[in-house]
Amino acid sequence: MRKILTKLFLLFILCFGFGISAFAEEKKTEVFTIQFSLEDDETLVFYLFSDEEYEGAVFADTKKAEVNVVLCDHSEVEELKKIAFEAKSLVKSVTYRYEYEKEKIYEKITDSFYKFAPNVHEEYTSLDEFGYVKAKGYVTSYLIAMADGSSEQIVDASENSSSNVLVSIWSFTDEIQTMIEYYYEKDFPDKEFDYRLIPTGSFSAKLDDAFTRKSDEPDLFTLEDSFIRRYVENGADCLLDLTDLYNEIKNKMVDFPAKVGTYNGKVYALAWNMCPGAMFYRRSLAKKYLGTDDPDLIQKRVATWDDFLSTAETLKRNSNGKCVIVASYEDLFKPFEGARKQSWVVKKKLFIDPAMEQYMEMCRTLRERDLEGHKSQWSDEWFDGVKDEMKDENGNDMEVFSYFLPGWGLHYLLKPCSEEKTNGDWAMVPGPSSFRWGGTWLAINKNAKNPEEAKQFVKYIVSDDSFQQKWAEDTGDMGPDRNGLNEIKGNFSEPFLGGQNHYEVFAAIAENVTGGLEHSADSDFEKLWKECCSSYAKGEISKAEAIKQFRQNVKTQLGY
Q1: For residue 531, what pLDDT is reported?
Q2: pTM of whole model > 0.85?
Q3: What is the mean pLDDT of the chain?
Q4: Which of 37, 57, 118, 329 reaches 20 to 30 Å from 533, CA-CA?
Q5: Which residues lie across from 170 on neighbouring strands?
Q6: Rg of the Cα trace of the chain?
Q7: Per-residue pLDDT tens over the stretch 19-69
Q8: CA atoms of 494 and 508, how far apart (whole Å)
Q9: Is 520 within 8 Å of 229 (Cβ atoms)?
Q10: How many other C-beta atoms are found inside a 10 Å radius of the C-beta of residue 124?
């Protein structure tokens, strides 16, 4: 199945183009094109052309992809937006071959690419025999391109040739197409769908436009963790109430995904996956510095934040300062966020939960005591810890004991980035606090042409025991349906985790995850809070000044 999914992903890339604009001295609009081609089963090649170059280009590779051209005002090049496409499995080797001679353009593109695509690791080589700058990397859960515009691919499962189309679907992830073609249509062969894949970066804008114009509206669409609440909180205006559907299945469902999709007591969106988080640690480092790699014993050493700090001190002491408990204090934001009792907004006023202040203090403590790696989360140096290649500022070797990540972090970050160097040397425990990170929900348009068919599809995807089990086994994903999960968690063994059963651990964690505290402006609150915490952790300002600064920024920028 993994090979099939990989081929599907490659085919998806081949029939799809991205555009990206580059840096130039003059502030004018220019056209650049990236062309993709498939050289073998695992290697993609990217060619960058100016408009004139592309018109005269000759391609020997008949498998080249279609292209998309994006216009970009270079005065806004620093604000390049990311467009992410969720991949089902790893494309192991990717080559970026930029056919353009201006060094500034190359530097700007690569700098931007790796800034917004931190899960792509680069290994630069010299110019190849054709004079092209060459770079290789690994693509994990996302293949990301930056563009100050958007492109979209329309995939029509019914080929628009049948009058039997029952539901039109918009999504930013091609997982839905796979669910339809390889699962749903096998169980319901008479059902047909009009499916449209739209990049994440332009998804909300297109959806808003469709709702505003009241034309070309999808019947059913996906919602991502970062913007689900904006729609759910306005659910009465645009979304179909799914409370009755959820009441039919809720007794067998983990409840926090539905809470995220609930507003004013009504359920407007349901998730097919849940993303509980855990603390992933290196077994060899645990044995070397703590005397055991047994997950039960390690969990006792990190069961509370006080325990966590004590263990961090032990790692530092026993390794003579070489081993840090995390690569960055930023890694702990999600666990502390998961410990909150209140939202950022309570009774329409800003509220700073005590857990967030505890996070601020933890950042300062870890930094002052040199218990973290002083790396920026998602930076190349941060990823080096996974491969056991991290260095300190003086070039000395460092070791990173743990990373706090959800399920997708296991499959699309740890596994590919380990590069076989730490494969099998990992294990996982719940850590000091249960948390979640990510997720994808399904919602139905209030004006859907065939709401009952749409509801049947949603019910199948989020709660059909057989589907949920197969999907988890085929993709490594985790759904909220306990019945499906129980079928696979009993005797599963993950080689990357030294044979540990990650489904069993995640299932237990999920039962303790809190849902229902989400707000439509969460990402904005989080960004502002992290900025102030960073200033405090580095000793640039006092805690009182940091909180005051945060309150002022929230009032000015968010109105709370």
Answers
A1: 96
A2: no
A3: 76
A4: 118
A5: 196, 221
A6: 24
A7: 323 322 333 333 344 444 434 443 334 444 444 444 444 333 323 333 232
A8: 17
A9: yes
A10: 10
pLDDT at res. 55: 44
- Looking up tokens 């604009």, which residue turns up? 21
Can you tell me the distance from the alpha carbon of 116 to that of 143, in angstroms, rounded to the nearest whole number? 10
Among candidate residues 373, 350, 371, the one with its CA nearest the CA of residue 362? 371
Q: Which residue blocks in 30-97 are alpha helix, DSSP H?
A: 51-55
Q: Please list, in sequence order, all residues whose beta carbon lies within 8 angstroms of the beta carbon of residue 226, skipping any fewer than 6 positions away.
A: 522, 523
Neighbours of 97 (CB within 10 A): 16
- Residue 455 identity: K
Cα 427 to Cα 424: distance, rounded to the nearest angstrom:
8
- Please state, in angstroms and as integers, the Cα–Cα distance from residue 218 to each residue in 157, 208, 233, 266, 461, following that order: 14, 11, 19, 21, 18
Given this model, what pLDDT does residue 477 score? 86
**Number of residues in the chain:** 560
- In whole angstroms, what is the distance from residue 427 CA to residue 422 CA? 11
Distance CA 236, CA 82 (A): 30
Cβ-based neighbours of 100, under 8 Å, separated by 6 or more: 22, 32, 48, 49, 50, 53, 106
Strands 133-139, 123-124: pairing is antiparallel
Q: How far apart are CA 27 and CA 21, in angstroms?
A: 12
Q: Supply the pLDDT for residue 199.
A: 83
CB atoms < 10 A from the CB of 170, how many? 23
Residue 344 DSSP SS3: coil
Pairing of strands 323-326, 345-346: unpaired
Half-sphere exposure in the Cβ direction for 42 (13 Å, CA) = 10
Bridge partners of 277, per DSSP, are 406
Tens-digit pLDDT profile for residues 96-115: 333 333 333 334 444 433 33
Per the CB < 8 A criterion, the answer to whether 413 and 405 are in contact is yes
Q: At what angle are helices 451-463 and 465-475 packed, to 10 degrees?
A: 60
**286-314 residue pLDDT tens:** 999 999 999 999 999 999 999 999 999 99
Tokens matching residue 113? 């690419």
- Token pair in block for residue 130: 């054709």
Question: How many angstroms separate the CA atoms of 426 and 179, rounded?
Answer: 31
pLDDT tens-place string over residues 482-508: 998 888 887 788 999 999 999 999 999
Q: Are 305 and 338 in contact (CB under 8 A)?
A: no
**Over the stretch 416-429, which tens digit does the pLDDT of each residue have?**
888 788 999 999 99
| All residues at 6 or more sequence positions from 115 whose CB lies less than 8 Å from its CB, including other chains | none
Alpha-carbon distance 464 to 470, whole Å? Answer: 10
The pLDDT > 90 percentage for the chain reads 57
CB 295 within 8 A of CB 500: yes
Beta-strand ranges (E) seen in 206-314 are 220-224, 262-263, 266-267, 270-271, 277-282
Residue 348 CB contacts under 8 Å (≥ 6 apart), including other chains: 560
**Helices and strands, counts by H and E, the chain:** 24, 22
pLDDT at 272 over 60: yes
Winning range, highest mean pLDDT, from 56-60, 162-166, 355-359, 383-387:
355-359
Q: Which pLDDT score, from 0 to 100, does residue 219 have?
A: 95
